[in-house]
Amino acid sequence: MCGIIAVIQKKGQVAPFLHQALKRLEYRGYDSVGITTISEDQLFTKKDKGKIDEVHKKLNLDNLPGSIGIGHTRWATHGIPSLYNSHPHFDCYEKIAVVHNGVIDNFLELRKKLLKKGHTFGSETDTEVIPHMIEDEMKSGSSLKEAIKNVTERIEGTYAIVAMSIHEPDKIICTRNGNPLVIGKKEGTSYVSSDIPAFLPMTNSMILLLDGEIATLTTDDVRIEKLSDGSVIERDTIKISWTASQAQKGGFPHFMLKEIHEQPDAIKQTLRIRPEMFVKAANTIQEANRVYFLAMGTSGHSAMAGRYMFASSSGIVPSFELASDFTDIMYDSISEDDCIIAITQSGETTDTITSVKYAKEHGAKIIAITNVVGSSITRIADHTIITQAGPEIGVAATKTLMVQLAALAQLSIHTGQITEFRTNEFLMRMRENLEEVPDKISNIIAIEEEKARRLARIYYNKPSFLFLGRGISISTAFEGALKLKEISYNHAEGYSAGESKHGPIALVEKGYPVIFVAPKDSTHGRIIGNVMEMKSRGAEIISVIEESDSDLLELSDHAFQIPSGIRHEFSPMAYVVPLQLFSYYMARRNGYDPDKPRNLAKSVTVL
Ligand code: F6R
User: Fold this and answer.
1) Is 258 a catalytic residue?
2) Full domain range(s) for residue 512
3) If you measure from the C-alpha of residue 348 to the centroid of ligand 1, how many angstroms do you get, rounded to a whole number?
4) Domain CATH number, residue 392
5) Which residue minimizes the CA distance to atom 15 of ligand 1?
6) Which of 76, 196, 255, 287 is most exposed, with minimal Cβ within 10 Å?
7) For 169-198, how does the pLDDT look when each residue is reduced to its tens digit (9 = 90+)?
């Protein structure tokens, strides 16, 4: 949450670059935006509430002098979105500028102390205590770096902090605890950001900054030190394979639509991950006493589907727990005999990181499935599987779900080889079937996109929807409902079709839309029964069915049709696609920007 970018270059204005970089980070927060630069011993700032384009139109964000600057796009935690709460924040004399992502838990106490000392505050944010504390430290003779180091000893909470000062206009200082920061380097310029796509058009050379470290960026150098003892850390530069064009819309009106279309390729890339990456993790799973999936949101829906994949191929049935509640459920019962499979596309979700750290402290083995190299989860996990979706910019997860499912499918097959629950031939057939999924998804997009657009024209103003499925398709029903509510704001509930008659059916009256996810698997007969129950109460039935399914076709008012031949373990990958498209066109039809749903951010780094 919140996007940070800072750059220091030898010459030329940095503001236009900062503005563009913030656009690439807008998925991290978009309720306000700000840029500060240094030129001729002065700070220059433009900031306000609103989306970047709106603020730029009003203020012209490009028109700031100087070749060093910081920028921020905000997702409000402390203080409403407003000009005054927008970052950057300053000390009393506007000599120090700070941007921050995270939450300073003890800010009230610190703020009171600073007010007593005579500091004046311009915002309600927790962030603003930081520049004022730096001001005090620098007044007593500390350098900017020492000042920030001392401040970190007194603040509690999670943070990524980037600061600069006119007293030392040749450097940017940054540090982190629990919130991401990555450094980018090319000749004569240094960058630091909360996410790689911000500087991707300029460089794909990245240096990780870890919790408890502080970095000094100059035009020629990046120096990383441990906060605890000041020792210098030599860290190699990593070349990342993501390209700048992957982080652009490429002719599509929205990132979300582009990312839906990229799914077949993203799966193909993920199917190319070397088998060794899975084998170690599979051994750990097989040796464990209990296996838990931990995840949130869409990643939780891949976990739900993953349970069925594992059960079918390996005989191991992992539990799935919401990461946000795991510690409350487990008390101290987790142990070194247990294994956690943490699924998080960003690798930064605080709920997931917190519960994984707790499990690790209790000795459990940690397997991470994430899309971001070097993200926080990768540094906690014993084994990491990096999915190959490339950068996902749309806030609503689409292609990252797909690659998580592809990775889980492979991990479950590898685990099956070790447990010998199935024959090799069975597992080989699974793998062959998995290889066919990307082309089938290409077909679905080609044929069903127009139908999704048409159905959105019919249903856009329905206030409420039920999404139902059975077995593995419950996960798809949940995901369909989540996508619809998060980007189109129609109320939607995902439910087990079996459970639907135990309560939700009370919602159904004439014309109420019920969406069934209904592949022709072992649940098919029972799903037909549930469709009948809904129909006889006047529901309008929209179904996602196999193309050969004439029974359900006949019972449905509208149907998305999925090519035959996809094994039930992989059906969520195919059956979710029309629902992603439906949500996308519903959002557009309702006049919302599908890439930037209100109140949401791409990585949720608060508890
Ligand atoms: C929904 C969505 C969120 C995320 C959730 C977990 O479209 O994107 O529900 O799935 O915030 O995020 P990660 O996977 O980054 O841990």
Assistant:
1) no
2) 448-596
3) 10
4) 3.40.50.10490
5) 346
6) 287
7) 999 999 999 888 999 999 999 999 998 999
